[in-house]
Structures are given as C-alpha cells and as structure tokens.
Amino acid sequence: MRWNKGTMNYFPRRLDWEAQLALLAALRRIVAEAPLFTPTMPRSGKPMSVRMTNCGSLGWVTDKERGYRYQATHPETGMLWPLIPPMLLDLWGEVADYPFSPEACLVNYYAGEAKMGLHQDKDEEDFAAPVLSVSLGDTGIFCLGGRARKDPTKTLELKSGDVVVLGGEDRLAFHGIDRTLRGTSDLLPEGGRFNLTLRRVTRPK
C-alpha cells in the first residue's frame, strides 16, 4: 500500500529482515556512543514515557528550562551526535523526494506502556522537507489526524521494517503513537520498539 504522493506515503516492510538486522546493529553503535536519555516537557518538567537519542549534525531535545529545540550535542554527555548511518541516507534519497540531505535522526525507544501523544513536527525551518520514519521491533499503533488537534484521526499498524513519509499537506498533521503491541516482533531481544525519524532542520541556502 502506498498513499498518495504529496500527503502521506506508506511503504510496508520497506526494509526486509536482513536490512532490519543491519540497521539495528548500526543503531546499537549509536546508542553506545550517545546513550538513551529521558526527555522532559517544557515548563512542567514532566518526563516523557519514551527514551530517546539522536544521530546527525543536529539532534532534537527538550527540557523544562529551554523547551523544544535542536542542538549539536547530547544533553547529558555534551558530545557531538554520531553520524546518520549511510543506509538511512540512502533510504532518504530513494523515498523522501527532497533534494537535500537530512540533518537529524531522532531515535525514540518505546518500552512497556510508552506512547507519544498527538503532536506536530514544527521545530524545523523548512516545512517543504518531509519527515521520514522507520519502525523497528514491535508493532506501533500510529495515529494520523489533520492540521487541527481536534481533527478526526485514522490509525495504522506500523510493523518492523515499515517506512512512512509525511510530506505535503500532511507535513504538519497531528500524529502520535497510541500504544505498542508487545511480542509482535522477534527483532529486539529486549522487546519494545525503535522509531527512527529523519528530518531536515535548517532551510537550504
């Protein structure tokens, strides 16, 4: 199934089992260099239920003091983020339909009851660039709405190896992960789900 170009493109099982294993190995190296941390909400300081890290020249972070932002260093180690794996850059080139490279890859890990409420990805400078996400591990129930928070949503089961590209009218659509279906994949021995999100942050010159 592939949804209309210019809105949301869905590529089920775009990564086969071998590609998933290769990407997971690259992801383990990223996490070893840039450990998972728990982001906190602006103002309230409430911890999010997902843990996360980043790779690329920029990474997305949030905390009580400074809120949502991109920065070049890990908030706990102070080190630069690891590079985006070449296979993800290749995937971007194949399906993103955008001429410039991504600068950030957010890595969210969902374990237990972790979820992500409806939100817009709007901390970037150029919304002409799509957002590309890759699912690894247990199936996540993805919700996609419209540009207003109260718009009706549709749901999609994102399985390991699935790829989604949000662009065009859906680039600023509200979306989130309602829950993860435990035991639906054997990819991660520890269980849970990784979601990798590629983004272009700055406006190309």
Quick overview of this protein structure:
The protein is built from 2 helices and 12 strands. It is α+β, with helices and mostly antiparallel strands and 205 residues long.
Q: If you had to describe this structure to a student in words, what would you say it looks like?
A:
The protein starts with 7 loop residues before the first strand and ends in a 6-residue tail after the last strand. The chain contains 2 helices and 12 strands, in the order βαβββαββββββββ. It is globular. Residues 1-6 have low confidence and may be disordered. The chain has helices at 17-33, 86-95, and strands at 8-11, 51-56, 59-61, 69-71, 104-110, 116-119, 131-137, 139-144, 154-158, 163-166, 175-181, 193-199. By secondary structure, the protein is an alpha+beta fold. The strands form 3 sheets. It has a 6-stranded antiparallel sheet with strand order 1-10-7-12-5-2, with helices on one face.
Percent range for β-strand residues: 25-35%
Please give the oligomerization state of what you see.
Answer: single chain
Count of extended strands = 12
Q: Largest beta sheet: what is the strand line-up?
A: 1-10-7-12-5-2
The radius of gyration is 16 Å
* Strand-pairing-aware structural class: alpha+beta
Helix content: 10-25%
Mean pLDDT: 95
Q: Low-confidence runs (pLDDT<50, min 5 residues)?
A: 1-6
Rounded to the nearest angstrom, the distance between the terminal CA atoms is 35 Å
Order of helices and strands: EHEEEHEEEEEEEE
Per DSSP, the total helix count is 2
Q: Which overall shape is indicated by the principal axes computed on the Cα atoms? A: globular
- Largest pleated sheet: 6 strands, antiparallel
